[in-house]
Structure formats: structure tokens, C-alpha cells
Design a protein that fits this description.
Layout lengths: L15 H8 L14 H21 L2 H10 L9 H12 L2 E5 L5 H9 L2 E5 L16 H8 L6 H20 L6 H24 L2 E4 L2 E4 L2 H4 L2 H9 L4 E4 L2 H4 L12 E5 L2 H16 L15 H8 L3
Parallel strand pairs: 1-2, 3-6, 5-6
Antiparallel strand pairs: 3-4
């Protein structure tokens, strides 16, 4: 990055280093560890200490093992170089620091290549439960421990590969309007699958209901709601439902799908691939998530 950013602090939406990177058009960046403030470090410690008892009670076993594999600590924000030193020998994955929003085509391309786009800022200490966008606690403490498990890592790679194949599947269609409609439908289905599994998935471990979704695991409130609230709806995983189910990102999730194991989830990813190849995802239910025209063009840019 040209020049040096001397202002300390990497707080979400308030980080000069990030604003400078965006201004320069830099998406993939470094983690300027020296810029974390004492307040940033305190926020990590608060979040970690608050959520650890809930992880021990509700997180799946592979997640808890991942915490140990990565040597995560409440004492300080982890250095991504240390995370990758522990992670890569296990599954080939690496955390890849980014300055902000990653377009879907790039996000899935990263997954296919065993790279996980990772936010380096951390949320404001005055709003520990509120997340205007992902932060390093969500990405590293919520997502990355699961990346230490080989089966789960292969699921992520498979999801990335499926998304990457969407444009090629429709390359033969002469009508641009029809092409865009089918790509948009495919991406909605894949986004819904990712949301209700990787982000907000629940699992049965014997008689125990546990959490593996990172959107839940990075929030104490979400963990308690997903596992304990009588208002939450929980159903056995049904792929046909998942790909047609809309979702919103600004409130507790009202609906969860429960898998039996990561082997079960991998089989569902293979079924998702079959659905895609058979055209069953070309006309899924209309609704959220919103897929913008720019995102569609990104997927179709090489056709």
C-alpha cells in the first residue's frame, strides 16, 4: 500500500488503513498487526471470554478441536500468519486478509483454491453483539476453526467449485435475458445453501443438538437463540426446502436446518451438484437474497 497509515485502530467502519486500501482499489491486503489498539484487543478478549462457555456447551466437537489446533487465545487478536501456519498443514486452507466486501465470484473462487477471505477489523466495543459487517472475530473465531476439519474443508471447496461452474453451464444460451435469469436463480440457490449450512447450520451429535454454523458460533445471542429458544424453528435438513427458502441478515434467524454429520452435509453438497446439473436450480423461489445485476455480470464476464 502506498504511504504509511500511522493512525492506530482497526475498528469496523472506523479504520483509516481500510479506507486507504479501498481508495486505492486494494481488496487483498496485509494484516497491519501494529495498528490494533488496546481497545481492539480488549474487544477480542471480551468477545472470547463471553462466548467460550457457550462454545463448550453448544459447539460441535470439530469446532472445539479446531480452537485447539489454531491455538486461539482470549488474550489477543490472532496474527493470520500464525493461523495459517497451524491451518495449512491440516487441510491446505489459508486465511486471506481483505479490505472489505468480496464479490461472490471472487469469494467462491477463493474457496475453490482453499483460501478464506478474512476481515481484519474488529467490531466496536460499544456494540459487541451488533455486526454491521463481518469482522475478524466472526471470520477467525467463527469460521476458521471449522476449516481445520478435512471433510468440512472439502465441503467448502466443493461449494466454490459449484459456484464457479454456474456461468459455464449457461454459456450455450443465446438469449442474454434467459442466461441472466438462470444464473441469478442458481446463485440464489447456492447462497441459500451456504447460509443455512456454513453460516447458520445445526447438527445432531447423538442426542445433543449442537452448532456448526459460523454466523451462530460468532454470536453469544445467536447461539442461545438457535439452541434454546422456543421461537426458533428447527427441521431436519431438506435440500428442496433449503434452496427455495429466503433469509434476512438483520435479525435472529427464525428457521434452522439440522444435519446428522459432516459426511451427511457432504452428501447434500453432491446432491446440490446434481440439482444444478439437472436444471433443478434454474427456477428457484423468488425472494431474498438479492442478487444484483453487477454480480450477475461478474459471473458472466467471460462468456
Amino acid at each position: 500500500m502506498a504511504g504509511k497509515i500511522l493512525v492506530r485502530g482497526l475498528t469496523t467502519t472506523k479504520a483509516p488503513f481500510i479506507e486507504e486500501a479501498k481508495k486505492n482499489g486494494e481488496l487483498f491486503i496485509r494484516q497491519p498487526y501494529e495498528l490494533y489498539s488496546k481497545e481492539n484487543q480488549k474487544v477480542w478478549t471480551k468477545l472470547y471470554n463471553n462466548i467460550m462457555p457457550l462454545w463448550e456447551k453448544h459447539a460441535n466437537e470439530k469446532f472445539l478441536e479446531g480452537i485447539q489446533h489454531l491455538s486461539l487465545s482470549p488474550r489477543q487478536i490472532p496474527k493470520l500468519e500464525d493461523i495459517n501456519r497451524f491451518l495449512e498443514p491440516l487441510t491446505g486452507f489459508q486465511a486471506k486478509p481483505v479490505s472489505g466486501y468480496v464479490p461472490p465470484y471472487l469469494f467462491f473462487e477463493c474457496l475453490k483454491n482453499r483460501q478464506f477471505p478474512t476481515t481484519i477489523t474488529i467490531r466496536d466495543g460499544k456494540k459487541l453483539e451488533y455486526l454491521p459487517e463481518p469482522d475478524i472475530f466472526h471470520d477467525i473465531a467463527g469460521h476458521v476453526p471449522m476449516h481445520t476439519d478435512p471433510v468440512f474443508a472439502d465441503i467448502l471447496v466443493k461449494c466454490g467449485s459449484l459456484a464457479g461452474s454456474v456461468a459455464k453451464r449457461h454459456a450455450h444460451i443465446s438469449s442474454r435475458e434467459e442466461q441472466i435469469a438462470k444464473v441469478k436463480s442458481n446463485l440464489k440457490a447456492l447462497a441459500r445453501f451456504f447460509w443455512f449450512t456454513i453460516e447458520f447450520g445445526l447438527m445432531k451429535e447423538g442426542s445433543r443438538l449442537c452448532v456448526y454454523g459460523s454466523g451462530i458460533l460468532s454470536s453469544a445471542g445467536e447461539i442461545q437463540y438457535a439452541t434454546e429458544s422456543r421461537d426458533a424453528q428447527r427441521y431436519p435438513f431438506r435440500l428442496e426446502w433449503v434452496v427455495n427458502q429466503s433469509f434476512q441478515i438483520d435479525s435472529f434467524q427464525p428457521l434452522f436446518f439440522v444435519i446428522d454429520s459432516f459426511e451427511h452435509l457432504y452428501e447434500e453438497v453432491k446432491r446440490l451438484e446434481t440439482f444444478l446439473n439437472e436444471g433443478k436450480l434454474d427456477n428457484v423461489a423468488y425472494d431474498e437474497p438479492h442478487i444484483g445485476d453487477k454480480e450477475i455480470e461478474d459471473f458472466l464476464y467471460d462468456l
